[in-house]
Amino acid sequence: MAGGPVAVACLLAAASLLVEADHKIMTDVTLGFGQALEHCRAESGLTEEQMEEFFHVWNADFKFVDRELGCALHCMSRHFNLINDSNRLHHENTDKFIKSFPNGEKLAELLMNIVRECDHRFAHKEDECMRTLHVGECIRDTCLQRSLAPSMEMLLAEFIMQSEA
């Protein structure tokens, strides 16, 4: 096949750019969602140490065990109107939230499928903080499996750029 290695190299470069673009979108969504963290810290009972750990949420080694983290995630979701009157994820508002970020529409359908699946998987949990904790972990793990999670380096770089602006 003529041009085979060149064609393969072009496809690999294009695929790499697409993955990089997905990571940028996920970084924007993560940082946007994270803006409510300070607002929710006191309400959820997060300690300063837990606040610092929160920045490692996309790391596969991060453990979703503290109920306070689930309460913070629930509060943050409420802050952005992502929770309905029944204390469940509001899928339409979550979709709009994702699409509100630059190029968010490119990942919205995929992310919403992940959100729906994770939300459904833990719908039986009565405690809203623990349900939100498990849903958050499920979303994180699924995003990691699908190589959608932003890198820590990218998150920190964007966070620094935002704080300097």
Automatic annotation (TrEMBL):
One family name in Pfam for this protein: PBP_GOBP
Q: Which UniProt keywords apply?
A: Signal, Transport
**SMART domains hit by this protein:** PhBP
Hey, what's the signal peptide range on this chain?
1-21
Q: Which GO terms describe its molecular function?
A: odorant binding
Q: Which family does the record assign?
A: Belongs to the PBP/GOBP family.
**Protein name as it appears in the record:** General odorant binding protein
Naturally occurring in which organism (per UniProt): Glyphodes pyloalis
The organism that produces this protein has a lineage beginning with: Eukaryota, Metazoa, Ecdysozoa, Arthropoda, Hexapoda
